[in-house]
Amino acid sequence: MGALLTPAFGTVFWATVAFLTVLFILRKIAWGPILKALSDREESIANSLREAEKAREEMASLNSDNERLLQEARAKRDAMLKESKEIAEKIVSDAKADARDVAAKEIESARQAIETERKAAVAELKAEVAKLSVEIAERLLKEELADSDKQKNLVDKLINESTLS
Amino acid sequence: MIRHIARLIIVALVFAAPLAAISQHESHGDEHHGEQVQSDAHNSKHQEENNDSHEVAHEDPHGEHHEEKFVAGDFIMHHIADANEIHFFGDVSAPLPMIIYVEGRGLDVFMSSAFHGEHGGHGGHGPTHATGPSTGVEYTKDENGVSAHDEHGEVLSIWDISITKSVFGMLLILTLLIFMLRAAAKSYSRRPGKAPTGLANFLEPLVLFVRDDIAYPIIGKGKADKFVPFLLTTFFFIVGCNLLGLIPFAGGFNITGTLGVTIVLATLVFVITTINGNKHYWGHLVWPPGVPNLVKLIVVPIEIFGIFLKPTVLMIRLTANMSAGHIIILSFVSLIFIFNNSYGAAGGIGIGVFSTLFMIFMYFLELLVAFLQAYVFTLLAAIYFSEATQEPHH
């Protein structure tokens, strides 16, 4: 019982020597490398996680970029389509307007030509009628004016007629 | 992990098997035939409860030789106390080296098998004697240890640094730790940054437990690093010693139940705490701020007493807990003998079944306690270190 409760000198001696020696040996060959390996690994895991997170964010931003580009492209396409449609419509309407103008001008010039022709024809006709009338009058006068009464009657009659018409 | 435990068990078996053969051989030669029947009754029981069989077998010849009454207290104390030989079972024990320095005479180194008693008994049962091979001093060994006297019977003062059972077990565990941990460390450098395998994989949770659950949260991450190697070594050492004490047939080691071992651990905790104590720590100890002067007269001596008390309690807790586990298991073993002596073999066997069941339960409990006490010791050491290194926070 006494031996149990009294620390023996030899045990204390060996425990001190052995424990301290092993403590220093282990610190050198085991704890140092093991703890370093553990913290290195933890760090590398943390780094990997961080990088993965970063990559994920990059992916997300890339995706949103893509989305945005697509949106822009779509908008551009729509705009282009709209524009070309407008241009086409404008071309068509311009063409129509031009055609109308041209047609109107043609018609106008045709009408003027017709008018001119008509006037010329009327003038010619008038001249012809006048010439004919003069000839007829000449002949009639030659025949009628053989006698003076008749000449007189005729003159009167002509005068009357001309004032009336 | 299972592979490593299996490996350990196989090592234990390989270690124990030849000794079992020797014991068979020796016990057949030595035993008195008159007691053979009773002995056999025990032996048949040993098969089912191999953890206590060495105590049983060991007591048999003793009882036969002296016809003494079985005294459970002596039996238990003898088994948990340190010894100069590793006693396996029966009369089988391995001698250990005796290293004794006799003042004025010189150093004696011899094996403990040189000790012989008057009636051939082994350590702890009556004094045994040996003569120092180089000094010629007469050594006497009894329950209280080794003493020396010269030719005239004059008592000489000696320094006994023999490799006792506990010292041997301690050296065994420390050597084992060096090999295991070096192997683990190598496997880390072989596969940097990879997940651990094998031994490292088995040890890593324990290492991380001490670092992340004891050192870092208690001491603080920055300051803990210089204490971590000590805490780890202490933890692994205590766990190893505790577990060694639980291996049946392996000599019934009670290393962490030996005061000489725990006092060293506690002293180291005290020394490290004292060396690392900062101004804040000592200031609060010697001149606690905000305490009336009259009260200081009471508080300061208590505080100073406390710094010695803390490691002492640490020492006593570990020693008492580990010894208690052994005492309980041995008490159940003793029950078998008490009943055997009082009611004959039938009583011994009857109570043996009951005792064995309790012992199995106690073994599991002791397995838990082996880790628990290592944890408690390490945890409290960490708390003392953190107190010593705490920065003022007001």
Structure in words:
The complex is a heterodimer of chains A (165) and B (394). With 165 residues, chain A is mainly α. In chain A, 95% of the residues lie in helices and 0% in strands. The radius of gyration of chain A is 64 Å and the shape is rod-shaped. Chain B has 394 residues and is α+β, with helices and mostly antiparallel strands. Chain B is built from eleven helices and ten strands. The radius of gyration of chain B is 25 Å and the shape is globular. The A-B interface holds A 1-16, 18-23, 25-27, 29-35, 37-38, 40-41, 44 and B 77, 80-82, 99, 143-145, 159-164, 166-167, 170-171, 174, 177-178, 181-182, 184-185, 188-189, 192-194, 200, 204, 207-208, 211, 228-230, 232-233, 237, 258-261, 263-265, 267-268, 323.
Radius of gyration of chain B, rounded? 25 Å
Biggest interface, chains and residue tallies: A-B, 37 and 51 residues
- Biggest sheet character of chain B: 5 strands, antiparallel
Oligomer: heterodimer
Q: What are the salient characteristics of this protein?
A:
heterodimer, A: 165 residues, mainly alpha, B: five-stranded antiparallel sheet, 11 helices
Chain-wise SSE layout:
The complex is a heterodimer of chains A (165) and B (394).
Chain A: H1 2-5, H2 9-144, H3 148-164
Chain B: H1 2-30, H2 36-48, H3 53-66, H4 72-80, E1 85-89, E2 92-95, E3 97-102, E4 106-111, E5 116-117, E6 128-131, E7 138-142, E8 145-149, E9 155-156, E10 158-160, H5 165-190, H6 198-219, H7 221-224, H8 228-244, H9 259-276, H10 279-286, H11 293-389
Antiparallel strand pairs in B: 1-2, 3-4, 3-10, 5-6, 6-7, 7-8, 8-9
Helix pairs in contact in B: 2-3, 2-11, 4-11, 5-6, 5-8, 6-8, 6-11, 8-11, 9-11, 10-11
Could you provide a short overview of the structure?
The complex is a heterodimer of chains A (165) and B (394). Chain A is mostly helical and 165 residues long.
